[in-house]
Specification:
The protein is α/β, with parallel strands linked by helices and 415 residues long. It folds into 2 domains: 12-208 and 398-414, Glycogen Phosphorylase B (Rossmann fold, 3-Layer(aba) Sandwich); 212-396, Rossmann fold, CATH 3.40.50.2000. The protein has 16 helices and 14 strands. It has an 8-stranded mixed sheet with strand order 3-4-2-1-5-6-7-8, sandwiched between helices. Helix 3 (127-135) crosses helix 5 and helix 8 (246-257) packs across helix 14. The chain starts with 11 loop residues before the first strand and ends with a helix. 49% of the residues are buried.
């Protein structure tokens, strides 16, 4: 959905994102890029965030009474000392989410601002926006990155009916309190609308391609276990339940059975299932799978320059088909990489329509392996796919264009 630019003066935005990171971190930088664009368009931003194992705010001062504050690239950052990682237990994670929400509500009631913006996950991110909307009468824009509780319910990770009911009530309150909303994928926009929100209040602003990151010239880099003549397929992201990376190991086993030792799969990142995946790969004797630590976003270009195929992998959950907008997919496009995606939906349709990779059926390791073999055996086709991938990035998902759409939407809410 397009947005109409309106004439507004400088707006003070308080921006809540628990997982905020600059490119120095190893997680998505959407909020950094959007906040930077707000600043470039003459607005002021106070970013309220937590701390994390892979995120970096680049604030140097030590925490004092559990918080620190400073300027980062024109963005004022208020960071709470709430360490979080994917390995954190569910109970502890819930406590961190609620504590961040409480501290954020205090900031929403105390700070000076014109508009409040909050982005998930977690769903509790919407709580300060609700307070700001009804107690301070401030316009509130709510960004939905995943549908909660629909997504965790579909994955089976949350089954308690009381918890699901509470999450559903919070979702409803957040949507109804918001002046305007943003969804990152078509299914998210549809899901918000199904909860009774008019489509005129919802804009779709997907994750985008940071073309400047991949325009820089860097020496291609590969892990030592990957030879220069090997075809290297890379997955760069979380190793969690949602990612379904057992599908990658199944495909690697199929490649080994076919004698294709010239194809290497590199899994880069962290997550609660990484240790189990390592053990399974070792038990299966998969020397064609290489595990690697997370890489800062700023160093990703060198890795992608040495990569042949980007892997967009998720567990086979229908809620994912149209309800996700993964950072890694758009990073692959920006780097000019063909994408192999192993589940249906809007991203698979893009890959097929623009002929920029391979869309294979979910749960089919033979088709997965066959796609990688085709990539290895048809390098000319692979290069052409990469060119089309980057063209798709430039024409439809350039983050600079999406950031302008984002700012336009917030300016409409502020006006």
């Amino acid at each position: 959905m397009g947005t109409q630019r309106v004439s507004v003066g400088a707006v003070k935005v308080i921006y809540f994102h628990q997982y905020f990171s600059t490119p120095a971190g190893a997680i998505g930088t959407r909020s950094y890029e959007m906040a930077r664009r707000l600043v470039e368009r003459g607005h002021a931003v106070l970013m309220v965030c937590g701390s994390g194992a892979r995120g970096k705010t680049e604030l140097r001062e030590p925490f004092s009474r559990g918080r620190r504050r400073g300027m980062v690239d024109g963005i004022e950052v208020l960071e709470f000392d709430l360490a979080y990682s994917n390995d954190t237990s569910f109970v502890k994670r819930t406590g961190i989410f609620l504590k961040f929400a409480a501290l954020s509500v205090a900031a929403a009631l105390r700070e000076d601002y014109d508009l409040v913006f909050a982005t998930t996950t977690p769903l509790t991110a919407g709580i300060p926006g609700i307070f700001a909307r009804w107690l301070r009468r401030k316009p509130f824009v709510f960004e939905v990155r995943d549908l909660w509780p629909e997504l965790p319910k579909a994955m089976g990770v949350i089954r308690n009916p009381v918890v699901l009911l509470g999450m559903s009530a919070l979702e409803w309150a957040s949507y109804r309190s918001a002046t305007k909303l943003i969804g990152l994928a078509p299914g998210i926009v549809d899901g918000i609308h199904r909860r009774g929100v008019a489509r005129s209040r919802i804009a779709m602003v997907p994750n985008g391609c940071d073309l400047t990151l991949f325009d820089t010239e860097g020496a291609p880099w590969r892990p030592p276990a990957v030879q220069a003549t090997d075809t290297m397929a890379v997955f760069a992201g979380a190793h969690g339940i949602a990612n379904g990376l057992d599908a990658v190991l199944d495909a690697a086993a199929e490649l080994r059975e076919r004698g294709r030792d010239d194809i290497k799969i590199v899994l880069i990142g962290e997550g609660k299932l990484k240790s189990r995946l390592r053990r399974r790969a070792a038990d299966m004797g998969l020397s064609n799978v290489i595990f690697h630590d997370s890489i800062p976003k700023g160093k990703l270009a060198s890795l992608m320059a040495g990569t042949d195929v980007g892997l967009q992998i998720l567990d086979n959950v229908p809620a994912f088909y149209y309800g996700t907008s993964p950072n890694k997919f758009f990073d692959y496009l920006a780097a000019g990489l063909p994408v192999l995606i192993n589940y249906p939906g809007w991203l698979a349709e893009l890959v097929r329509e623009h002929e920029c990779g391979y869309a294979v059926p979910a749960g089919d390791p033979k088709a997965f392996a066959a796609a990688l073999m085709h990539a290895a055996d048809h390098r000319n086709e692979l290069a052409a796919m990469g060119v089309r991938a980057q063209a798709l990035a430039r024409q439809h998902f350039d983050r600079r264009l999406l950031a302008d759409r984002f700012v336009d939407w917030l300016e409409q809410a502020a006006s």
